[in-house]
Sequence to fold (460 residues):
Amino acid sequence: MSFHNFFSPSILVSRWKEQLLGKLPDGLSKTILFSRQPLMRILRGCLFTLCLVVPVLSFRRISASLMPANFYQRDFIQEYLLAKALLKGENLYLPLVDLAKRLVPDLPVLLFSHPTPHPPPAALFFLPLAFLTYEQAVVVWFGIEIVCIFSIVAMLLKWLGVAKNWKMVALFSVILMAWEPFVIDIALGQISVFLLLFLLGSWLCLRQDHDVVGGILLGVVLALKLMAWPIVIYLVLRKRWRAVISSGLVVGISNLIMGKLIGFDTLLFYYFSVGPTVSAIYRGDVWNLSAWSMGWTLWDSFYSSISPLLQLSSLVDLISRFAPYSAVLSSLLLTALSLYFSLQCKVFDLAFGILTCASILVNPVTWAHYFTWLVIPLAVLGRYLYLLKFPRPELRLTVLCVLIMLYSWGLVSGLAYCLVRFPTYGASLNFLEVFLYLPAFGVLFLMGLLFRINRECVQC
Fold:
């Protein structure tokens, strides 16, 4: 072979294909990377955009959040003040603005007038960061989040059976960090990515019947954020008592320790007063994508839109009173539906994926960074599509679901900005509020798709 032919583009491309085909499962690589089907070409175009264009914009936003001008515009300050209050012996659940005046008096930005919504055990976890200055703590937490993302990718690649090396881990980590929920979590210094690492570890342990370790990891998630409780209900119904008891012990012991440190009156004040109050404040927030908010907002938008057409004010008032019940009903209905689907699943991975989707939406508040948890059900979906040799109907539905997850955030951001920026036009834009929940509808779509995959697995 001549020197010119050795470095020709065609030979280099063919060698790249051979290397990539050797590292990825054969069916997956041929179907997604090299298929000439129009559907696969669209998917490759989306992946190309995701891999090249979006990361540049995403990393620009992440780096901007670390600039001095934006350093204090991060939600992480809530965790820092919570831990600092525990260290200094202050009341953890004073309004954040009052807590900041006592602990960080030179804080250059205004904070929320309500207490932090994070549970007391979160203060115990973040306590080591309270020994640092706020600026140092932000940098340390940023590094922890990056390590968590690389760890999540490495664990998922191992489970998927993909040849793992640092280049593959780095590539998929960059792709994850380009997705909007991850960008928001990192830029704001939130804890959803950190919780995802524990939830992923819990799932991998539970699927191998390591119930004690899996329950402990699940308990950590529940102690730090009041989410993932549908998974506990599923474990109870499946009578996996070791997992249930171990997770309950983690939650109970962590709250018992905090009760001893801050007083049980403060502990009860959080669970019976702070939580419901903060949930009520953000019930109608345009960025709240929960099923609870969905039931409330969509029903409220419906009756407020038809009210000018109705002359009977008493009828309008009667309809409006149903909004709180529609919020509760939508959340309960989603919980019951997810439990029904998961109990019907013969494969634990699919059941866990469905319950993870439900855990994102069933609480009164669901922010965009909660959607980072969708990494688990999406990985499960891809794995079982591959095992089923990519059936065409399910593959098309999966591409549609992925497109919704990737590209709905731009519409949501633009519409939310318009609703906040132009509140005087709220009445005329009421029906458009349904599009705010496009990512949430994508999660519901993903739940149904996982259940459909389960039926295909049973038939096979």
Observations:
- Confidence is low (pLDDT under 50) at residues 1-9, 15-26, 303-312, 424-428.
- The chain has 23 helices and no strands.
